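Input set for joint prediction.
Command: fold jointly, output tokens.
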Amino acid sequence: MIWLDQVIQGTLLGGYYALIACGLSLMFGVMRIINLAHGDFAILGVFAVWLLVVQTGISPFLALAAIIPLMGLLGWALQRWVFERSLRAGPLVPLLATFGLAIVIENLLFEAFGADTRSLAPEIGDLAFDSWVLTDRISVGHLAVLTFATAVVVLIGLHFFLKWTVLGRAIRATAEDPDTAELVGVNSRAVYALAAAIAVATTAVAGTFLAMRATFDPYSGPAQLIFAFEAVVIGGVGSLWGTLVGGIVLGVAQSLGAQIGPRGFLLTGHLIFLVVLAGRLFLSGVDSHAVLRRGLPGLNRSRSP
Amino acid sequence: MSEKPLFVTRWTPASKLSAAIAVATIAALSLLPLFFGANVTERLTTLFVYIILAVMWNALAGYAGLVSVGQQMFFGLGAYAAIRLSYSGMNAYAATVAGALLAGCTALPLSSFILRLRGGEFAIATWVIATIAHLLVNFDPLIEGETGKSMIALNAYDATARQAINYWITLAAMVLFLILVFALLRSRVGAAVQAIRDDEHAAASVGVRVMAAKRLIFIVAAFGCAAAGALWLATALTFQPRTYFGIQWTAYMLFMAQVGGLGTFEGPIIGAAIFFVLEDRFGATGVWYLVGLGLAATLFALLLPRGIWGTIEDRYGIQIMPVGYRLRFASTGGKSSKQTTRWSARANGDPHRV
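tokens >
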């Protein structure tokens, strides 16, 4: 029974991982950038939300709604000034530049807010601890279900946006082949900036849900990046719905690991990631290059390496 | 231009002179503890460790195109193995050397898995594995989670002797690794890994043994970082997992290699010296210092990707330690004889480069 409970809690936790991972996946799928500052953007976003909440006393959800466009703007600016430049310089430079950026964000946050761990849980009242009792042993928290539902809504939204809108089509076309997309009139610079804006905006959502469930501090970002990346890789690089699958696998593995021992939570999560990665490398026989170059599966049908 | 015969040269008079100066500097450095006190030797020991780290990370990222965010794993494991061996009754310095070797050996099995990954996947997988190593070290009852342990075996030496030994052993390790990397980069492996960095498929198609070349660099870098960790422990005396397995080591390595000149032999040494001076001046400011490091690394990556030395090298064609090849046009006139160009220049560089 306790194991079933852990599977349920882990699945719901997977919703959070999908939230933090979908932006990373989108950015990788479209621009082939792995943003090593991704987790730090989530923490930056949640600090903005937290600041707004404690200053004005509004609900964190309202504050999040206000912060999302700002984070989108930040993503747009970063694409124009950092990513665009680094992309032209070769595949390594984005990694180097975003890693440097991560250090800057973490330490600026530390300078501004100090080392205290904070949480948004006190700001959301009953939602933080209310739960539905399923059996006498198993109950699911309202917040966990809300997080999972938000992840599904965000993924559905992204899915329909990419599939049915003009902008979404432009993003997919650019992800497939930026030069050809340019030839048929797509402004790939604008498309990249839009994708970066969406990706960074989603981190604010993820960060806020993290802060309502647990605590955060200026140096929480790298751990979130690792979880996001693990979810992306487990679910299949570049696939949006894969992030949900990967998130659930990661969440369940962590919850089961936590049941085994105090450090099991992190350890089993990392191990399942490595097992999936190794399994994919050795079983399929294809090198990860082919996996990486496949791009957004389900969105662009054929991308030859 | 094509009618003129071309000569391939490696050594130039300038590089011969500078190599001689380098040898003389090392000889002078090895005599230094006889004339200077602990405050000088201890600080130089730190610098030497930084140089080892910077050179190793540059060999990985700058030459082989492997951006590792997990080199702190070898740094941490080197220190951990050293302290574990010293508690099993081994002499402190024997444990330092053996610990470094033992920790470096973990790269052997690891390489066959992790080197199949590329770019960002490689970067984050190294990071995850470093985190796992950190968690596993926490399980060791000797270390007691994050509490850590001191290298008590070093008490067998009095402080003055210890500082001198630390200095010499670190200097020796630095020189050894510099020579090793220099020899590697000058050999076929050096050309092979740079070809892989620029285009792995193209390199494989002209017969470069991709895996073997990458593995060699990865393993050397692992030994270097493990040695740096074990030597750091010999100076710092206390092993705390969080300090040794911290991601900040990668941040430092990135800064030193990036600012000094990624993909040049001399660059990371200059970068380490800059880092050393900056830490001395601004280390006390804590957070702002780290912000500055991150900002500098980002700006250099975006605006001056070849770093300080790489830019100087590109502009003036000078190279102190010749790891690349130079093409010299046999000339009739005076001007063209100066036209030297580095064979190892990046593929996306100026068109006049070979």
